[in-house]
């Protein structure tokens, strides 16, 4: 097998399997944010990507896809149940999102997490070139940095954490809190979304291991009696803003935006929510606020419509099944009370859409509602801002989304405060154009400056600093 100087390790490969009409199977680049984010970093070198192929028991040889070597890691149905649905999405996901749902601690899930993380580490160790760089992604693979360091001490290892890292008071619930920190500390550079996430991580390391920390550096004892320093710092992720702007200028997509408004019966204002169907996203709180505004007569059907895209997610996890039932019950009740033959209160779509349709929706939306109870970043916020080239439109953004650190001129909302959220939604609906423009302009500047390329560059700069120190024999 060819070896690669840059290896990305992520739970999923950057491709989806598609079956053509004649039954042949091919691969198509997946539309996700992570893929776009890393695409530009990968394009500069002969890279490899280690990840799961998206189907249980898929055991195929590494293959080339558009210049990147894809290395599939097979996962059995049981691995998926215990490692993916279990430990990753039933334990870590709710714990790291401030226990919005109750985390479940099961020893069999942990065992599977260890076993599967080792499989990913072994695959990466096999494909990485001598003294190459391996970049591990996200919470499903927190043990990989340490496992990989043991297998291949010559490598430089990065890790990026796409979701929040919780305060010690919550993190300390985890029965395997030491092992997870040890796993992460195997990296040379650890990236987090927000200053607060990096801070929470450092505090956990201090509390549990008493390792000294200085600014972004943690001194970790090395086997030889010396120590090595690990960088733990914020690198807020972003989007390919230019690509979104280009889509927003396409005549067919602009025409589609007009058509969407017509199809909704030409309401004066369109409110939009776009989320994976996840309990972290605050969809229930948003629906509650909107439902009450209808009850109060503060908004009326026909004048205002809410479009809620809820893309299907993790259907095998019980908390997601319960959430879907709850949301669909609420939507059904509100629509039942307020719909007319011509208009709907909430156009609810439990579907995923291609990027073109998303951009058309962003262009059609007068108000974008992001009311997450906790969110690592929330790239939808940045996508909405990027496409609003006329500086119109209002972003209502949760304080608890990482994006709120940068998009400070959004209407910032505490989604737990339903009255506060109702007031803000009304303010967004009625905001004068001059104010919309002032707020949007400042946000667009941030997103265009700090795009995904800048994100990749700044992370790689930290990695190169480690590599240079190593090459010159300086202590790291
Ligand atoms: C979040 C996580 C990603 C994950 C994505 C989709 O954004 O940070 O790691 O890939 O959700 O979730 P899924 O479970 O379908 O991969």
From TrEMBL:
Pfam families named in the record: Glyco_transf_20
Origin species, per record, is: Microbacterium sediminis
Superkingdom classification of source:
Bacteria
Its Gene Ontology biological processes? trehalose biosynthetic process
InterPro entries per record: Glyco_trans_20 (IPR001830)
Named from the GO MF annotations, one term is: alpha,alpha-trehalose-phosphate synthase (UDP-forming) activity
Instruction: State the name under which the record lists this protein.
Output: Trehalose-6-phosphate synthase
- Record-linked Gene3D superfamilies: Glycogen Phosphorylase B (3.40.50.2000)
**Which family does the similarity line name?**
Belongs to the glycosyltransferase 20 family.
